[in-house]
């Protein structure tokens, strides 16, 4: 007869600053795998943002494991951008129990008040190039995909009950890669639709990162809409994007457009390769069609079509066949463009915020 041991538990929280200890438990807060090849990006993001974590722990009185007992039940990452907002990410508990979620949320709010933050916002899971942002709404596609965390609705329900509100909604459209030559598009009268002779399309190589990164960052900070800047700006974001794309994708996954007369970067963008899906030849066959920005002085010149067309011809040859197109829920123009390309909305994520 096996004698049952009496096990008593009690919840507590603890602030953790050791990045490797946080990394060891990060899987509790995200559905996307914490692969060894992702560790350098994660640890780099922790350092860039000086991130900490709040651990939800369970004090266990047990004779089974003794001092080797893993007491961590859940966690949330916390960091800021040097201003008045506390960002959180990787918010999760192992069994999605509402009482545990509430206890961890209490600790998050208490921390924000103790350090005089005016707002709490998240989840933004750094590096977002891999782990994305937001709580997923019910009915969304749960298939593993880069930057698309999955969670049961109890998380956002608990946050909303506690006074958080929806700051931003992001939809995703499932799309196929349609090859399109932008130089042969014609109007109804048979004439060419666009003249791109004043512009040059380039795909930067890995060793050209330092030459282009400042202009790339400037375009994003100055000309992307507020909804695209929901997460804090940091040079590491751009550096990790460049490195991740060149490591898991190809040079074709990132592009810049230059105005020939001034050699100024006037547009740029990237797609994030989805390393969780490959074709029979071992090539990444899908990506997040993530980012397009055009300088205001060069809009209405067809540069979005120029970038998409040139990129589509390259990536199709490399095996890319489908992807996910993120669109701010309020951006009806981009949503319409995604639908015209045959896209089907299949995911929505919520960024939540609370004013303290």
Explain what this protein looks like in three dimensions.
With 356 residues, the chain is of the alpha+beta class. It has two domains: 8-169, Gcn5-related N-acetyltransferase (GNAT) (Aminopeptidase, 3-Layer(aba) Sandwich); 178-320, 3-Layer(aba) Sandwich (Aminopeptidase), CATH 3.40.630.30. 28% of the residues lie in helices and 29% in strands. It is built from nine helices and 13 strands. It has helices spanning 19-25, 39-49, 98-114, 128-131, 154-161, 209-223, 235-248, 303-317, 332-340, and strands at residues 8-16, 52-61, 72-80, 85-93, 119-122, 135-136, 165-176, 199-202, 254-259, 264-273, 286-294, 322-328, 344-355. Strands 1, 2, 3, 4, 5, 6, 7, 8, 9, 10, 11, 12 and 13 form a 13-stranded mixed beta sheet that branches. The longest helix is centred in the first third of the chain and has 17 residues, at 98-114. The radius of gyration is 22 Å and the shape is elongated. The relative contact order is 0.16.
Question: What attributes characterize this protein structure?
Answer:
single chain; about 350 residues; alpha+beta; Aminopeptidase; 2 domains; 13-stranded mixed β-sheet; 9 helices; 13 strands; elongated; disordered N terminus
């Amino acid at each position: 007869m096996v004698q049952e041991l009496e096990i008593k538990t009690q919840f507590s929280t603890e602030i953790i600053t050791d990045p490797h200890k946080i990394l060891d438990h990060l899987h509790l807060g995200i559905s996307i795998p914490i692969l060894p090849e992702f560790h350098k990006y994660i640890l780099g993001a922790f350092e860039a943002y000086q991130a900490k974590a709040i651990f939800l722990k369970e004090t266990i009185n047990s004779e089974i494991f003794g001092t080797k007992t893993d007491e961590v039940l859940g966690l949330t990452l916390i960091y800021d951008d040097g201003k008045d907002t506390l960002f959180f990410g990787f918010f999760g508990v192992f069994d999605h129990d509402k009482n545990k979620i509430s206890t961890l949320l209490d600790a998050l709010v208490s921390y924000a008040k103790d350090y005089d933050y005016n707002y709490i916002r998240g989840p933004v899971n750094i590096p977002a190039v891999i782990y994305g942002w937001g709580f997923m709404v019910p009915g969304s596609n749960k298939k593993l995909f880069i930057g698309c965390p999955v969670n049961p609705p109890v998380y956002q329900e608990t946050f909303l009950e506690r006074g958080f509100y929806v700051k931003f909604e992001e939809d995703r459209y499932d799309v196929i890669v349609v090859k399109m030559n932008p130089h042969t598009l014609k109007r109804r009268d048979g004439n060419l639709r666009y003249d791109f002779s004043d512009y040059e399309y380039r795909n930067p190589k890995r060793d050209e990162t330092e030459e282009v990164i400042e202009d790339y960052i400037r375009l994003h900070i100055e000309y992307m809409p507020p909804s695209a800047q929901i997460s804090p700006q940091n040079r590491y974001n751009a550096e990790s994007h460049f490195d991740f794309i060149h490591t898991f994708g190809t040079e074709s996954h990132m592009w810049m457009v230059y105005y020939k007369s001034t050699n100024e970067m006037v547009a740029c963008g990237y797609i994030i390769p989805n390393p969780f899906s490959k074709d029979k030849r071992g090539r990444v066959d899908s990506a997040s069609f993530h980012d397009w920005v055009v300088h205001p002085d060069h809009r209405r010149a067809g540069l979005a079509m120029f970038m998409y067309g040139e990129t589509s011809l390259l990536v199709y040859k490399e095996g890319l066949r489908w992807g996910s197109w993120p669109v701010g829920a309020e951006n009806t123009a981009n949503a319409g463009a995604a639908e015209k390309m045959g896209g089907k909305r299949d995911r929505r994520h919520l960024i939540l915020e609370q004013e303290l």
